[in-house]
Description:
The structure is a single chain. The protein has 5 helices and 9 strands, in the order βββααβαβαββββα. The chain is of the alpha/beta class. The strands form 3 sheets. Strands 5-4-3-8-9 form a 5-stranded mixed β-sheet. The longest helix has 12 residues. The relative contact order is 0.24.
Amino acid sequence: MTVEVGKLAPDFTLPNQDGEHVSLADFKGKHVVLYFYPKDMTPGCTTEACDFRDQHESFGELDAVIIGVSPDPVDRHQKFIDKHDLPFLLLADEDHKVAEEYGAWKLKKNFGKESYGIERSTFIIDKEGKLQKEFRKVQVKGHVEEALTFIRENL
């Protein structure tokens, strides 16, 4: 299954940084910025998370919550949050099932070596749970502002 703009976003339940189970359905009535990223504590992922952190209040003013998802385990997410003072949820998708469902789990090439991993992707979901925008192959620089602008102008 893949996601489709204009259709309901697939619901899921994953553990957050505290080990509590969180479902997409828990956020009905709010806009959701669901972003998939490869790995905690890496340069690009840290920059992206800190950019979301720095704009967290602006998203909140638009009634939007930010949720990060990666294959990292719960305890690594907690360290990442503590180190960078991240004010939003990070969900552990260790078996990458949710990333697969959203089409963010891809075969990647790095220095000639192929392996599966997260393709940096962001999904904007409206208050009714419908997917309104997908950003694929995200470049970190300027991305958070792009997501914020989309919500501001379209939702």
